[in-house]
């Protein structure tokens, strides 16, 4: 917005400067022209006085000599004509009194009219200045003395003056822009900049940020009040959310602890009970994360400070319960190679494995094979089934929200399972890859970064 405001104000300053500069430029040109005309008019008056006697007596030798000397000294041709416009004396030959400029000047001078001021000397024009004075005796016009004044040096002087004016104009525009326009622009936009900075603070989570509305235009005060009301509403909503999460997590701790105690007694007798016990533990971890989200736990308990998780060990522990589930449905679950590898502790291995194994049992065909391998800087959790698989076009859409293959749309499901897996992997910098294996079926790989310093 600052650029657009400057783009509006700077042309206005330029236009005003041009309006101020045009009269100054005209003054420079007309002043130089007037000065040259007046100085040469004095010389023409002197020649008119010197020509009075020769025009009466006819002795023009001395007058011709004066004209030649003046021409040599000032590089200005001079000639004298009588009342019939015959050239009596000249500093150079070839004078044509019928030239438009000469004829106009002689018509005015011989008629006894006052001389008119010559036009301004602009650098892009050319030509000589004609200065004529009447030769008069007792009120009777005897002839005229005419000077053809070169204007090159005068036009060069005007050009230099215009260049100086242009330079001063540019400096003035720059000074006005820097000294006035930019400060005014900053002053006008300061409330909006404050609002923009406050908005960025709110987006970073500083919901207690407010903007000042004192001493500002009514429109900006209303905008600031609206922003403060919005920020206050967000702050209150976040507080209510934290209070709800803190209360809910606190209330869930006791029944989860009681349920775990009861199931622990059964876990020694039944693998399914151990599977349920792992679910109770997972619920406990969810409650812990909710507590941390609500800010009720100490900062030192943040998940980012926990030890790396051995993905292979976590998968093997979760597969204990799933083997019982697959066996109950007469499905074959093969545990393949399990290579230890450290991954981020916040990776929800149980959630990911539950989705992949549930999809493989519903949409694929046995046997289903699970393995954990290392591939360079990644640890790969792989689940393969031997079903119909997916086409190349469908493989590109795996993990999109609410997407389901055309072969599986009649089966129950929401199309969110693999989207959740992809989101969980991305949360720790990982990714999900779907590919057709040799021999048919489908392989879903969850690839997450390997923690190098993990001690196997």
Automatic annotation (TrEMBL):
Keywords recorded for this protein, A-Z: Kinase, Membrane, Phosphoprotein, Transferase, Transmembrane, Transmembrane helix, Two-component regulatory system
EC annotation from Swiss-Prot or TrEMBL: 2.7.13.3
Chain ranges passing through the membrane: 161-181
Molecular function terms from GO: kinase activity
Stretches assigned to the HAMP domain: 186-239
Zinc as UniProt keyword: no
Subcellular location as annotated: Cell membrane
Domain Histidine kinase: 247-452
Family matches, as CDD domains: HAMP, HATPase, HisKA
Catalytic activity: ATP + protein L-histidine = ADP + protein N-phospho-L-histidine
Annotated PANTHER family: SENSOR HISTIDINE KINASE TRCS (PTHR45436:SF5), SENSOR HISTIDINE KINASE YKOH (PTHR45436)
Name of protein: histidine kinase
Gene source species: Kribbella sancticallisti
Taxon lineage: Bacteria, Bacillati, Actinomycetota, Actinomycetes, Propionibacteriales
